[in-house]
Specification:
The complex is a heterodimer of chains A (277) and B (366).
Chain A: H1 2-5, H2 18-46, H3 51-58, H4 61-94, H5 100-112, H6 115-126, H7 133-139, H8 147-158, H9 160-173, H10 176-183, H11 188-217, H12 220-226, H13 236-245, H14 249-276
Chain B: E1 3-12, E2 15-25, E3 30-34, H1 41-49, E4 56-61, E5 64-65, H2 71-74, E6 76-79, H3 91-100, H4 110-123, H5 139-151, E7 157-161, H6 169-186, E8 189-194, H7 197-203, E9 206-211, E10 214-219, H8 221-226, H9 231-236, E11 241-248, E12 251-253, E13 270-276, E14 281-285, E15 291-298, E16 302-309, E17 317-321, E18 333-338, E19 342-345, H10 354-365
Parallel strand pairs in B: 3-8, 3-9, 6-7, 7-8
Antiparallel strand pairs in B: 1-2, 1-4, 4-5, 9-10, 11-12, 11-13, 13-19, 14-18, 15-16, 15-18, 16-17
Helix pairs in contact in B: 3-4, 3-5
Classes of the chains: A mainly alpha (277), B alpha+beta (366).
């Protein structure tokens, strides 16, 4: 490895550059074809009919409501997942308890299960004929085909992101700094705020960013529990599909461009944070 | 600050880490807990700090039951082997930490805290490091900062876990001398853990030798060195040559051994083990001798002889000042004249093989 870092002397034999150039070229072409072109095309189609049409499409009440609902869902789920993620990482890295291994496995489940299964599970649990359905009906609590259901499914899908980022870091750091703080007289909250949190802040933010990206973009699970009521339970991804099915291509692409823009912002944040971590 | 520890036991699952520790430490004393890995010394230190809890036993400080007291309220200074400095804080903030987390009514004013920190930085001879971060410090500097952080809360009891464990040999020696002075000036009671006997002997007023969860011996360094209480201590303090002998009227005897220079002991007649230091033995050329010289190597000042014991087929090694050595070659027959040694009952002691086994156990449980 180290000898590759050193620039070869002038008399070093020249290696053929053909194969590396070919491979790099191939990678660039594939990336352009599969990633860059579709992304650019979204914006191209969104603005195809001009700025005015684009803005009108965004300001269309259904799309505007979808943007608002998506933001609301993210604003609820991300903070909850940060809280859950830090608590779980703390418990798993600092304590030995019965069921620790089980918890470790359970946390990973949302990653390995298709979101649509999560949606169906919630449907069977909270639906009218489901396990909790009659009771919820009696208490007049509406979960399915309403915002609470969407939030629940989104939380299920996004719950591993923060833990996955924070836990390995906390395990690697060990608890000595916290023990040192204990002997210096710090209370539990002081230890968390002044020792633990500063140590994990970048991993935590990184996890939160990934979590937000997923919360905003979630489609499969949400589509099952949302009931797709226009202007009420459509998140942005669902709204895009709806517009597309209505053959409103410009509208669909306008909405899609908003979602893409959000994803690009997340990507930039993620890159910045990776450098800081 | 007087510490009284009685019948302290601690087990991790099946492993008994402490098997009944009795110890008292007087105010102002500097005590070393010395032992091999797995002897339970760090666990004992952590229990005193409140970072671990015993399964049974008593821990009293100034007559107060410390097992009812949280670590936060014990007001001890603890220095970790790897220092555990807060990486996101400057040296100044690290040292100030213990003062800034005090409840509002007992917390000194910011100016008073800054003054105290500056004073400590001067005392530890690191004022130039005040605004650096731990990652920018050398090992020795980190150790000083860790000590400063622990001392900032004016602890009556200072606990150090392998204080020199993470340093290289030269820094180790310099810091040892320095630490001894600092601790004397600070005047606090100090307990430190080490596996290095030189460190323990040079720093401590009193050394507690631990092995496999028990205290083997407590005493002043020279006491322990000259009169090891158990075979374990004798072995732990250095190379030993162990020879089976027979006791008769307080005198040890065995074929091929000239034990005239050994004092009489008050032990029952019968078989015993004679423990000798390799340097406390004079080889005497003797055509009828029990030992054969297997080979001779020179370390410069010393000649090291590997012997073959014809009686037990053991291969003891002895050392002798090169100037004083009789002319010996490989193949020569000799007998041995011990100049000093310790006798233990033949059945006593843990065979040397047990210590590594315990170490392996500890490592596998981690």
């Amino acid at each position: 490895m180290s000898h590759l870092d050193v620039a070869p002397g002038a008399l070093a034999p020249r290696e053929s550059r053909t194969v590396p150039r070919l491979l790099i070229g191939l990678a660039l072409v594939m990336t352009a074809l599969f990633v860059v072109v579709p992304l650019v095309y979204i914006f191209h189609r969104a603005f195809a009919a001009g700025w005015g049409v684009f803005v009108r499409n965004i300001l269309e009440p259904g799309t505007l409501h979808a943007i608002w609902l998506t933001a609301l869902v993210a604003l609820i789920t991300v903070p909850l997942n940060i809280g859950f993620g830090v608590a779980a990482a703390w418990a798993l890295s600092r304590f030995e308890f019965r069921g620790r291994k089980t918890l470790l496995t359970l946390i990973e489940i949302p990653f390995s299960i298709s979101p649509i299964i999560a949606g169906i599970c919630y449907l069977l649990l909270y639906g009218r004929t489901g396990l909790l359905g009659p009771w919820l009906n009696e208490m007049d609590i509406k979960i399915l085909f309403a915002v609470p259901g969407i939030v629940l499914v989104t939380m299920f899908v996004t719950s591993p992101f923060v833990v996955r980022e924070v836990l390995p870091l906390m395990q690697a750091q060990g608890s000595e700094q916290e023990q040192a703080a204990v002997t210096l007289g710090a209370s539990g909250w002081q230890i968390f705020r002044r020792v633990t949190l500063p140590n994990i802040r970048w991993a935590l933010l990184y996890g939160a960013v990934l979590c937000s990206a997923r919360a905003v973009g979630e489609f499969g699970g949400v589509s099952v529990v949302s009931g797709s009521i226009r202007g009420q339970t459509l998140t942005l991804p669902l709204q895009i599909e709806l517009l597309f099915n209505d053959l409103n291509t410009v509208g669909a692409f306008a909405a899609a461009s908003v979602l893409t823009l959000l994803a690009l912002v997340v990507l930039v944040l993620k890159t910045v944070m990776e450098a800081r971590r | 600050m007087t510490i009284t520890i009685a019948h302290l036991t601690r087990r991790f699952g099946e492993t008994e880490v402490l098997r009944g520790i009795d110890l008292s430490v007087e105010k102002g004393e500097l005590v070393a807990l010395l032992g091999p890995s797995g002897s339970g010394k760090t666990t004992l230190l952590k229990i005193i700090a409140g970072l671990d809890w015993p399964d049974a036993g008593v821990l009293e400080v100034n007559g107060e039951d410390w097992l009812q007291k949280k670590a936060q309220d014990r007001r001890i200074g603890f220095v970790f082997q790897n220092y555990a400095l807060f990486p996101h804080m400057t040296v100044r903030d690290n040292i100030a930490f213990g003062l800034t987390v005090r409840p509002r009514d007992t917390r000194p004013a910011p100016a008073a805290i800054a003054g105290k920190v500056t004073e400590l930085l001067q005392f530890l001879q690191i004022p130039q490091l005040a605004d650096r971060f731990p990652a920018e410090l050398s090992g020795g500097q980190r150790q000083r900062v860790a000590l400063g952080r622990a001392m900032a809360i004016a602890p009556e009891l200072l606990l150090l876990d392998e204080p020199f464990g993470a340093l290289d040999a030269q820094v180790r020696r310099d810091l040892r001398r320095w630490l001894r002075e600092v601790l004397q000036q600070a005047g606090s009671t100090t307990i430190f853990v080490t596996h290095d006997q030189e460190e323990a002997f040079e720093l401590a007023d009193r050394v507690v030798v631990m092995g496999a969860g028990r205290i083997e011996q407590v005493g002043r360094p020279e006491e322990i060195h000259d009169h090891p209480a158990t075979p374990f201590v004798a072995r732990f303090l250095g190379m030993t040559v162990e020879l089976p002998v027979t006791l008769h009227a307080g005198r040890a005897g065995a074929p091929g051994l000239d034990t005239a220079s050994l004092p009489r002991v008050a032990m029952a007649d019968g078989p015993a083990m004679l423990f000798l230091r390799p340097t406390d033995i004079t080889p005497v050329p003797d055509p009828q001798g029990r030992f054969t010289v297997a080979d001779v190597t020179s370390t410069g000042a010393l000649l090291r002889l590997r012997l073959k014991d014809d009686l037990t087929s053991a291969e003891p090694e002895i050392e002798i000042a090169r100037r004083l050595a009789p002319p010996l070659r490989a193949g020569a027959r000799i007998h041995l004249r011990p100049e000093a040694g310790r006798l233990f009952p033949a059945t006593a002691g843990i065979p040397p093989a047990v210590a590594p086994a315990i170490k392996a156990l500890k490592e596998s449980s981690l």
